[in-house]
Amino acid sequence: MIIPTLGCPSKCSYCWSSEEGSPVMSIDTVREIVGWLKGFRDDPVTFTFHGGEPLLAGVEFYREALPLLAYGLSHLTPSFALQTNLWRLTPELAEVLKRYDVPIGSSLDGPREINDFQRSEGYYDRTMHGYSVARAHGLNVQFICTFTSHSIKYREEIFDFFMSNGLTLKLHPALPSLRSDEPERWALDPSEYGELLVYLLDRYLENMDRIEVRNINDLCRCVFSGRGTVCTFVDCIDNTFAVGPDGSIYPCYRFVGMPDYVMGSVYDRPSMDDIKKSEAWGRMNRFRECVEVHCKRCKHLRYCRGGCPYNAISHTDGKIHGVDPYCVAYRRIFDEITERFNRELLSSFGVQSGGRPGIIALIRKIASKEEPRGL
Ligand code: SF4
Ligand code: SF4
């Protein structure tokens, strides 16, 4: 993950980004990333530009950074992704992104009133304008919807909004903000998140030919392949890194700007062994110890792996004391998927009671599609 800046022009209520004028990564730092990764590992790499708002870095940044990474690290077969609110997407930027086939993840929390209430006034229209620029240039955009303690009350409207606009639905629960005076105000309660996932599973099964719900696809893939297929459900430590605007290396974009989680700097070109000697790595590794204890007897451990280490610190003083607090939600939905699957197997093949499509039909649909790397 490359974080060109922590700045963002929006002021979403539950977000941790900084002011728009926050420092921006230089092209020299991108060159240092290339220098560092040349000798670091041999596995294929996906670069996700994240923020803050990564498009604040401007068109020149991407015009130089993308070829540096693509050709300088061609032996790692780089692919790219970008997470942006799209406000600053210009036709020039869209052309550059299209040249490197960069899939875009953006954020929209539902219809205008719900979205703008929790993100900021005017957000919806700005993002939709950027979306039209992206589409006009043939860019692939998928939206992530953050469910908060407020928007959970409108889950039906939000689902219908995504379906009637032909948008794929991917969701995140709002976490307590480590940088807010009222950290819990927008956070989604873990058991409510579990219920939301089950609700979405039902609505998805009823409308399988009209919408994709990526989280449900991912959760089913986890259960039926027996391994995590998104970062929340794999052991991300040692396999995901984020580089902040000044070249500092962190475990993930979510930790950028937290001094306790700096594992090194690209300017020093640390090896994996150097990173493992850092105090920050030791702090992260504590998560694995918690998973070993907490999840030992869980039947979902193989494909859940204790969830997300950042979620584990978001409810604390910034240190890891346990596994992901959304454990309750994961267990609820994993149980639901496996129990329904078993029931369907025992009854007629691939059909819920009442003759409606069930989990087996969904698995068939998922198996017939492939989703892109990244995001
Ligand atoms: S810390 Fe969480 S969000 Fe970041 S890579 Fe790991 S699982 Fe994903
Ligand atoms: S569902 Fe909970 S107990 Fe089971 S592996 Fe996931 S985090 Fe651990």
Structure description:
- This protein has helices at 27-38, 59-72, 91-99, 112-118, 123-136, 155-164, 190-206, 214-225, 272-277, 279-294, 301-304, 309-314, 327-346, 359-367, and strands at 46-49, 79-83, 104-107, 141-147, 169-173, 242-243, 248-250, 264-265.
- Strands 1-2-3-4-5 form a five-stranded parallel sheet. A three-stranded antiparallel sheet has the order 6-7-8, with no helix packed on it.
- Helix 1 runs parallel beside helix 2 (59-72), helix 7 (190-206) runs parallel beside helix 13 (327-346) and helix 8 (214-225) packs across helix 14.
- The mean pLDDT is 93.
- It is α/β, with parallel strands linked by helices and 375 residues long.
- The longest helix is centred in the last third of the chain and has 20 residues, at 327-346.
- The structure holds iron/sulfur cluster (SF4) (2 copies).
- One iron/sulfur cluster is lined by residues 231-232, 236, 240, 252, 254, 308-310.
